[in-house]
Design goal:
The complex is a heterodimer of chains A (167) and B (208).
Chain A: H1 8-13, H2 21-31, H3 35-52, H4 66-81, H5 83-126, H6 135-141, H7 150-166
Chain B: H1 5-14, H2 18-26, H3 30-48, H4 55-72, H5 82-100, H6 114-125, H7 135-149, H8 154-165, H9 170-177, H10 181-202
The chains are: A mainly alpha (167), B mainly alpha (208).
């Protein structure tokens, strides 16, 4: 029976080293007439031998620091699960960056606040020769009704208008 | 538990049974975690070394295994041993890690070193000499095996090395992995066929 059947399935179903004497005898019988199965048999034998060599290589052992490493990783993981602790860790990691960003924003705000004031001073000083209550002064200084009543302002405007008409 | 100094405490934990240890660990007792790592890391390393070659990867996988185990320790129901439970976690963790890694290309004859080719030729001609190999030849064989195993999917690789390499039973593997025995058999069958096929291709042409 075995003479007609290829033996490849038998070789794949079990480790070559665990084949029974009967199976081996039948395989040998078949292989004499079948070159393909002969090659498969050789490969199966080598594979079986190779697998026994896997223990020849020294098995890796945990390093002396492995225990500490695992526990540290566990602590970190555990800490991350607690929201407050997570916030604390986040703050520790990014505090410097956040403070720097806040300082930059504060600086920008300060600059924005001071820059227009210095511009106004320039305008005011350049207009110092103008009539304090002229239309230009009222408009450029943008300080309406600081010292003038509405009536006074209207009078100044009227005067300016009549001056320009005279010209 | 008696608490008498740091070393005394460590000794106390060393004397705990697996069930007690799991109980303390479930209550987030860090010393119990430490003892679990001390007691079972050689086993976890051994399992991980069936999947990975480089020591750094083995250690990384082992760490992942313990972190997963600590997170799930509450689910350990004392039905089996703590070691068996950890082994299961180790197998699934390593398989998952390997699944995400790149698949290895097929090994070709040109990849073999001279030593490996000579070893194969010698084995092809005289397999019975296996027991008389020198240490150096054993290492060549182990290296060749490691490279051959890379062509297998991680699950098949684990099954083949455990059953044909270390002589574990199909039943044990089914228990560790949670697969059915027939699934284990199919995986072993498929792995043997692929390794045999790869070896047939690797055998020098004049010996085929």
């Amino acid at each position: 029976m075995m003479k007609q059947q290829h033996i490849i399935k038998i070789l794949d179903a079990a480790d070559y080293a665990n084949l029974s004497a009967n199976e081996l005898a039948a395989i040998s019988e078949h292989v004499r007439q079948c070159q393909d199965c002969g090659r498969a048999l050789q490969a199966a034998r080598i594979s079986s031998v190779l697998l026994k060599y896997q223990n020849a290589v020294e098995k890796p052992e945990p390093s002396p620091f492995f225990q500490a490493k695992v526990l540290n990783a566990w602590r970190e993981k555990h800490l991350m699960q607690k929201p407050l602790a997570a916030f604390y860790r986040w703050w520790q990691a990014s505090a410097a960056l956040i403070i720097l960003m806040l300082l930059t924003v504060a600086g920008l705000i300060a600059l924005t606040a001071f820059a227009p004031r210095s511009g106004a001073v320039t305008v005011q000083s350049s207009q110092s020769n103008f009539n304090l209550y002229s239309t230009d002064a009222v408009i450029f200084n943008q300080k309406p009704a600081r010292n003038l009543t509405t009536e006074q302002t209207l009078q100044v405007l009227d005067n300016t208008k009549s001056d320009s008409l005279k010209r | 538990m008696q608490r008498a100094g740091k070393s005394g405490l460590a000794d106390d934990y060393r004397n705990l049974s697996e069930t007690e240890l799991a109980g303390f660990a479930a209550a987030n007792d860090e010393r119990a975690f430490a003892e679990i790592v001390r007691r079972f890391s050689p086993r976890v390393f051994r399992v991980a070394s069936r999947f990975f070659e480089r020591h750094s990867l083995i250690e990384e996988a082992a760490q992942e295994v313990f972190l997963k185990a600590f997170t799930q320790i509450g689910n350990f129901e004392n039905r089996g041993s703590l070691e068996g439970w950890l082994t299961k976690i180790a197998v699934t963790t390593c398989i998952n890690l390997l699944r995400t890694a790149k698949r290895q290309p097929e090994l070709i004859i040109a990849d073999l070193s001279d030593d490996e080719t000579a070893w194969l030729e010698e084995k092809f001609l005289n397999v019975s000499a296996a027991d008389y190999q020198s240490e150096e030849e054993k290492l060549i064989a182990a290296d060749l095996l490691a490279r051959l195993l890379k062509i297998l999917p991680p699950e098949d690789r684990f099954v083949l090395t455990a059953i044909d390499g270390e002589g574990e039973s199909i039943k044990d593997i089914a228990e560790i992995t949670g697969w059915s025995e027939s699934k284990v058999k199919v995986k072993a069958f498929r792995a043997r066929r692929r390794i045999r096929g790869a070896l047939e291709k690797l055998l020098p042409a004049h010996l085929r």
